[in-house]
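Student:
Attend to each token:
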Amino acid sequence: MNGLRAVVTAGLAVVAIGSVAARQPSDTITAARATVTIKGHLLDGAFTYDRVGDLTLWGPGGGVIDIASDRGDAFQYSPMAKPGAYKTTPSMPLIVQVGVGPAVKIVASSGGECTVTLTRADDSGVAGAFECGRVGVMGPEKKMLGPVDSMTGSFSATR
């Protein structure tokens, strides 16, 4: 796993695992998919993530959605266990990694830049969409590169 992704992933895992630690083990997520469209000078394009990541866990109280691409990119979110609209926070960040190694760029929202709307959050899994304004982009070695103009997308994970 890429070193920067490991740092970001570890931070998300600590937050999410702490919030679900008291719950019973969850069933395995068997399918996951996220699509992301980013507009901006630093990143611009459409990205697809369709491989269940190592950290994905889902249970009655919510969980962590970790979805990878064939290239090693990652989409991560820590959703609540009930449908509704939520702003991103430090305990519910939305993280999109594009690229690996020295070309990696990570768009991370934990300060309310994104609104995530969960359309499904039940025993069978979770699904939703998100819309973000300007969100900061981090490059290799945690260097802040500047913001993207907008980011939208959707995700789902099912058992």
User: Anything to note?
Assistant: The radius of gyration is 14 Å. Residues 38 and 45 are 5 Å apart (CA to CA). DSSP finds one helix and 14 strands in the chain. Helices lie at 3-20.
